[in-house]
Amino acid sequence: MGIKFKAFLLSLFLSFVLFAPVFSATSDGFLRISLKKRNFDQNNRFAARLASGEEDKLRASTRNYNFRGVLREPGEPDIVALKNYMDAQYFGEIGVGTPPQKFTVIFDTGSSNLWVPSAKCYLSVSCFFHAKYKSSQSKTYKKNGKSAAIQYGTGAISGFFSEESVTIGDLVVKDQEFIEATKEPGVTFLMAKFDGILGLGFQEISVGKAVPVWYNMVKQGLVKEPVFSFWFNRDVKGEEGGELVFGGVDPNHHKGAHTYVPVTKKGYWQFDMGDVLIAGKTTGYCAGGCAAIADSGTSLLAGPTAIITEINHAIGAAGVVSQECKTVVSQYGDMMMELLLAEAQPKKVCSRIGLCTFDGSRGVSAGIESVVGAKNEDKLSSGLTDAMCSACEMSVIWMQNQLKQNQTKEQILDYVDKLCDRLPSPMGQSGVNCGSLSSMPNVAFTIGGKSFELTPEQYILKVGEGAQAQCISGFTAMDIPPPHGPLWILGDVFMGQYHTVFDYGKMRVGFAEAA
After folding, report:
1. Cα 451 from chain centroid (whole Å)
2. Which residue in 87, 195, 275, 295 is the catalytic one?
């Protein structure tokens, strides 16, 4: 690396200095954690481009996912492994040890461990640009030593467990198990404005089955009620980034009553979600129900590729052309339409034309073997077959929706072909024309029987100002297969507009319009 580039990186990092956040414990019994907000900016886009150099490593870490991001092997979907903290916007401050050593962390409802960089992190460059925990300087340190590792979509950390007192505002959580990170490879943590992550998910997804900080806050009687809530300030000119309230709900943070839905599965804060509407029209995909999680550690809003593609098409987002998708439409479109018009079961259409097999509930890859017989070519053939099966299933969903709107066969095939051009990369970003926001549709999500709507101004993220401004779609694609999916991840794009309550006592999640 040249001297000039090193100097550039150093100046870039020095520009990342954070202002200390403010904590307050008020007479209402709540613990308030002031959150600092960082807007999307050009430096962040530069960091993303640097991260592209880690692409091969990322592919290796996610090789269990096929064309649609679907897990190849049975088991629980690992949302943590797909998380991208590169665009994380909201941070707060905690202390670890006695006296407290300060760290800036993401309060993340989509994971469950607490980790901070360790003074024993010697070989990772990331550690040199962040605060590091020094056990030798703490009176309350307790050795554990058990090894730990967490894989994220754009980076990984590893290290070992220790036990300490953790200060959050005016409260001290005693004997908290946490990870001292000794390795932080990748650009994500190098460029990050946060030092570590404090997970607020359930113990079921905690690495090493470590008891989460929130559990100990409740167990040690540190909060008034077993409830915490997030308010994100989406006003780009606002001085405060938001507030995380432990122990209850601040009525000044929302308008009207919350709509509550029960937690359907402990791990993530998961609940049932209904239909997704584009400009008031049903997409049909979640009409029978989908699962969703509220995730404060995810900036964007992630959902099934089939629906994200429809949204991208409606808002004019530039996606990635999928040749497999266009091939399926051109070669099998007529046959698929005939089967649907003949009232064939939609789930069986792709198996009827030989692109998938039917396992009794859904189509799966037919796994056609290559006639060449070479192992590498077999894998290539299998991968192509997976892609064709996935493209077929998405096309059937799109065709069904258009048939319900009484479109002609020619109109439907043309529409589906155009949707193929809007297919996004898994967990990737899509750009839009900043001047077209007024013509973009609203997108709504049905939760607890109520429609929660997002306007273009709310779901489009702006980078820069004036003629140099760039606009990014707040929607990104990720697929989780049945029985655990389809699954939506409602990140900051959604939670910024709707004040979110995490009720641990009653095992429910609530949403209301943010004040």
Report:
1. 21
2. 295
Burial of 163 (0-12, 13-18, 19+ CB in 10 A): middle
Q: What are the structure tokens assigned to 149, written together?
A: 């590792």
| Residue tagged active-site, from 108, 195, 386, 479 | 108
Query: Does the annotation mark 87 as catalytic?
Result: no
Residue 295 appears among annotated catalytic residues: yes
Per-residue pLDDT tens digits of the chain, which is 515 residues long: 444 333 333 333 333 333 333 445 555 778 999 888 766 554 444 344 334 444 333 333 333 333 223 333 344 445 555 555 555 568 899 999 999 999 999 999 999 999 999 999 998 988 999 999 999 999 999 999 999 999 875 568 999 999 999 999 999 999 999 999 999 877 778 778 889 999 999 999 999 999 999 999 999 999 999 999 999 987 766 667 899 999 999 999 999 999 999 999 999 999 999 999 999 999 888 877 889 999 998 888 999 888 888 898 888 886 544 566 887 888 899 999 999 988 778 888 988 888 887 655 545 444 333 222 333 333 333 444 566 787 888 899 889 888 888 889 999 999 998 888 777 655 466 778 888 999 999 999 999 999 999 999 999 988 777 766 778 889 988 887 777 778 899 999 999 999 999 999 999 999 999 99
Q: Which residue blocks in 224-374 are alpha helix, DSSP H?
A: 305-315, 323-341, 346-352
